[in-house]
């Protein structure tokens, strides 16, 4: 099991799924896929006291992005500046760059109409280690589709969509690269221009760093707001 202990008494589990809705052994076809997951979320909290959240895994650009999000979620609860009472929902808020749960769900949640056959999503669970193990076994009986402990990260051709979604400008990425001692010449107006000088791994890292700067700003704003309250 891909369980990571993030502090004493609290662990998290992160995975990605791809497959067909028919492979959900107990999925009642008369309701939407999303409603089914809401029921699962409530049941897991009630039975195991574990926070369970699904999210749109198509917006994961790197492993470091996930590490940054989890760091901020843990810090938020440690300092008492969390917006939600559940770790899973707080993860969704930071993942989406939002302060309102409704907006976070609209931006980073999954949208699957009732007649869709193929699905792809990420899941994250937070709870005490032993409770977490029981919750994972419970989910494995409910979700019998392809599981990936390593996420499928965005391909270079998808990075521009990621940048637009999180309002990351090409100039911001360029400044980060220059700050990391990369030499850039001429006028650079796009990622394609950057690829002539810089490796894809370095560009991916710079975009991830730009994303994390936004997370830091969001974290500080939430912390200041709660201190005033």
Description:
The chain is α+β, with helices and mostly antiparallel strands. The protein has two domains: 3-153, 2-Layer Sandwich (PF0523-like); 156-209. Helices cover 50% and strands 15% of the residues. The chain is built from nine helices and five strands; from the N terminus they run E-E-H-E-H-H-H-E-H-E-H-H-H-H. Strands 1, 2, 3, 4 and 5 form a five-stranded antiparallel β-sheet that branches. Helix 2 packs across helix 3, helix 2 (63-79) packs parallel to helix 9 and helix 3 packs across helix 4 (101-108). The radius of gyration is 19 Å and the shape is globular. The model has no long low-confidence stretch (mean pLDDT 83).
* Mean pLDDT, all residues: 83
So what's the CATH class of the largest domain? Alpha Beta
State the major sheet: 5 strands, antiparallel
Cα distance spanning the termini: 40 Å
Which runs of at least 5 residues are low in confidence (pLDDT < 50)? Answer: none
- Which structural class should the secondary elements be placed in? alpha+beta
CATH topology heading of the largest domain: PF0523-like
Domain unit count: 2
Spell out the CATH superfamily of the largest domain.
CGI121/TPRKB
Number of strands: 5
Strand residue content: 5-15%
Order of helices and strands: EEHEHHHEHEHHHH
- Tertiary shape: globular
Helical residue percent band: 40-55%
Radius of gyration: 19 Å
- Tally of contiguous helical segments: 9
Task: Write the CATH architecture name of the largest domain.
Answer: 2-Layer Sandwich
């Amino acid at each position: 099991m891909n369980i990571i202990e993030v502090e004493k008494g609290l662990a998290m589990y992160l995975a990605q799924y791809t497959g067909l809705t028919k492979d959900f052994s107990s999925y009642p076809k008369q309701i939407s896929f999303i409603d089914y997951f809401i029921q699962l979320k409530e049941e897991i909290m009630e039975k195991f006291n574990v926070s369970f959240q699904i999210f749109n895994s198509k917006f994961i650009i790197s492993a470091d992005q996930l590490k940054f999000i989890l760091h901020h979620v843990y810090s938020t609860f440690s300092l008492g500046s969390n917006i939600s009472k559940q770790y899973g929902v707080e993860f969704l808020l930071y993942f989406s760059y939002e302060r309102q749960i409704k907006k976070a769900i609209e931006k980073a949640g999954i949208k699957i109409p009732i007649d869709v056959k193929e699905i792809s999503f990420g899941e994250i669970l937070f709870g005490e280690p032993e409770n977490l193990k029981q919750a994972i076994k419970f989910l494995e009986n409910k979700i019998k589709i392809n599981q990936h402990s390593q996420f499928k990260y965005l391909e270079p051709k998808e990075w521009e969509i990621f940048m637009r979604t999180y309002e990351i400008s090409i100039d911001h990425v360029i400044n980060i690269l220059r700050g990391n001692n990369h030499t850039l010449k001429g006028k650079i107006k796009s990622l394609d221009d950057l690829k002539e000088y810089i490796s894809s791994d370095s560009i991916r890292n710079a975009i991830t760093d730009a994303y994390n700067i936004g997370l830091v700003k969001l974290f500080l704003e939430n912390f200041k707001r709660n201190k005033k309250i």
